[in-house]
Amino acid sequence: MKKQPFNPDQLCFSIGRPLPVLLEEVQRTSRNPNLRKAAKQMLEGLRTFEWANQTEVSKSVKAKTAIHEILTK
């Protein structure tokens, strides 16, 4: 298996599970309170993106595209 170079500017999940599921798993299983808190904050951010996507709050095409990419990758 070839190891991919790490790029902190790019989020990519190749394990086939949605980001909210992964974050909920971190919240449930981690013993580290900082990790649980970070997962909670990320889930809240995802909910905000979902709300923004549904209500079309953003007028920027780039922002809409970015939100769509975040929610569908």
Describe this structure in words.
With 73 residues, the protein is mainly α. The chain contains three helices and no strands. α2 packs across α3. It is elongated and about 40 Å long. The chain starts with 18 loop residues before the first helix and ends with a helix.
Give the helices and strands, then pairings.
Blueprint lengths: L18 H11 L3 H23 L5 H12 L1
Helix pairs in contact: 1-2, 2-3
Oligomer: single chain
| Through-space gap between termini | 22 Å
- What is the overall pLDDT average? 83
Q: Beta-strand percentage?
A: under 5%
State the low-pLDDT regions, or none. none
* Helix/sheet category: mainly alpha
What characterizes the major β-sheet?
none
* Shape designation: elongated
The number of helices is 3
Provide the gyration radius in Å. 14 Å
What is the share of helical residues?
Answer: 55-70%
The ordered string of helix (H) and strand (E) elements is HHH
Compute the number of strand runs: 0
